[in-house]
Every structure is written in structure tokens, then in C-alpha cells.
Give the backbone structure.
Amino acid sequence: MKKERVLITGAAGFLGSHLSDRFLKEGFHVIGMDNLLTGNINNISHLFPREDFEFHHHDVSKFVHVPGDLKYILHFASPASPIDYLKMPIQTMKVGSLGTLNLLGLAKAKNARMLIASTSEVYGDPHVHPQTEEYWGNVNPIGPRGVYDEAKRFQEAITMAYHRFHQLETRIIRIFNTYGPRMRLDDGRALPTFMSQALRGEDITVFGDGSQTRSFCFVDDLVDGIYKLLLSDYALPVNIGNPSEITIKEFADEVVALTGSRSKVIYEPLPTDDPQQRRPDISKAQSILGWEPKVSRSEGLKITLDYFKALPEFNS
Ligand code: UDP
């Protein structure tokens, strides 16, 4: 029987590569697309020998052509860390806006269902805690994070426009902080930074006084939530994340303890517009998708540490 075909953009990235694995496991033919700006081909090199996987090296901000049928499109291409937005502000805006527009057009032409990767960043530095999907957010449009936040807000708006105006089948996931194997070591995010600092015995750089909070979700749980949302019939945004909230200082201490490192925490200035608190309200995911995270932070951190420890960077 012919396999159903799914297009995954950002397929060489952290989330895109895990999604590619999952959809292959579910029996789909996966078309992975990436311009390799922040993606890493090593994340998907194990898939190249497979006949049910193909890779297109392409920037989705330019017209996207995919021959043949498509059942689903998952748009996961984007720089995705505050350091990346500073380095690539225009590309970040283009992939969220022009890229999304191109892919919505493709979805319409193929009669495909499209899922977009939105983000807790649409809530900005939130005044509502924990964040529910009904909250409209507190975003600074012209700050350094604005290029990402506003591109994602535009992405949600245009996706709903295609849904309402063209009756396109669309799904919107708001992704909260997620971690796991294949995170980029040098993307400036808290977890890979803390782990590599701890493994090298360097100081751990906590920004601000470390009292800001985040809630970290293990990647396998997130992928499961994405899969469930895609297959559901719910078109409004759904938060997917782990509600277990922790301060960044406590998080740094956990990483140091896990690695057994003698690194000490040092404090550096808080980046502009760094949200003070973040925790998803996941009632919608629980009631609509029957989803909730299963992997505890201690389990997930161990798996992630094993991945980092095995990298050539730590074995020379
Ligand atoms: N952070 C930190 N030290 C670092 C990197 C990040 O203290 O070396 C802080 C950052 O300021 C933020 C939190 O950790 O408050 C999470 O940062 P990350 O970049 O992982 O995610 P985001 O800010 O997008 O939630």
C-alpha cells in the first residue's frame, strides 16, 4: 500500500528530526526540508538510507515546490533561541511570515492538513500565570525577541485566516521550553549551555538573579502531544509543555548535581525582555487530546546528559 506523505520543515533541527523519526515509525513517507541555517544534517543522517525518507535542502521563505500528494505539513523551520534571533533577525522573521505563507499555499494546493509550531513566546513576559490559551500576551514588538515573537504571532494570525477563509484544516501548537538529545550545543539556551559548562568544569552562567522561572518538557512528550494534536479535530491553539516550574538558579543547580561537576554558578546580566515567569496551563491538552507529560525532569535530564557526553566535543 502507498504510504501517506508528510512534509516536515526544519527536519534537520532538534524538534524536526525527532518528528521525522516519529512519523517514519507511524508508517508515513517523510519529506524533510531544511536550509541548514540552524539545523544539523547529523540529526537526520541515520534516515538517509531509508526509502521512506527524502531530504530537500531548501529555504521555505522562497516558493516551496513538492511533487505528489501530501497528507500533512508540519512547519517547524525557524531559528529558535534568543541568541539565534540576535544573529539572524531577518531570517527569523521571514521563515515565520513568508515561510508560513508559502506552506499554507502549498497545503491549500495539496488539500493537506497543516500544523504550525507556535510558541509560549506569543505570551511575551506574561501577566497571567500559568498561561492559558485565552491570554493574548505581553510582547514587546521592537525588542530583540520581537522578531521571533511577532513572526509567530503573525503565523498564528495567517493560519487562522486560511482556516476561516479557505476552510483549510489547520492546527496550532504553542510549544513551551523543550529539551532533549539533539539540542544544539551552542544555541545559547539554558540547558545545553549549563550542561556543556558543567561537563567542561567551567562556571555556570545564570542570567539575572536566577529567580526567573521556566517549565521544561522532555522532547518525547512534546512529540507525542504534536502527534495527538495533528490527528485531533481542534483548530484553535493548544499549549503543549510540562507544567513543572523551576527557577533558573534551581535548574542550574540540578544540572551541576547531575553531572557531578565542581562548576560554580556566576551571575550575568539578564537579557532584554527575558520573561520573568513561564508555565503552561495544559487543561486543554489534557481534556481535548488526553495528553500530559510522562517524563520527569530527572529522567529527561539524564537522557540528555548521556547524549551530550557522547558528543565528540567531550571525547577528544
Ligand atoms: N539563561 C541563563 N544562562 C544561560 C542561558 C539562559 O541564565 O547561559 C536563562 C535565560 O535568561 C532564561 C532561561 O535561562 O531566563 C531560559 O533561557 P532559554 O534561552 O533556554 O529559553 P527562553 O528564554 O527562550 O525561555
Q: What stands out?
A: The mean pLDDT is 97. The domain at 5-180+217-242+280-294 is CATH 3.40.50.720 (Rossmann fold). The CA atoms of residues 4 and 28 lie 5 Å apart.
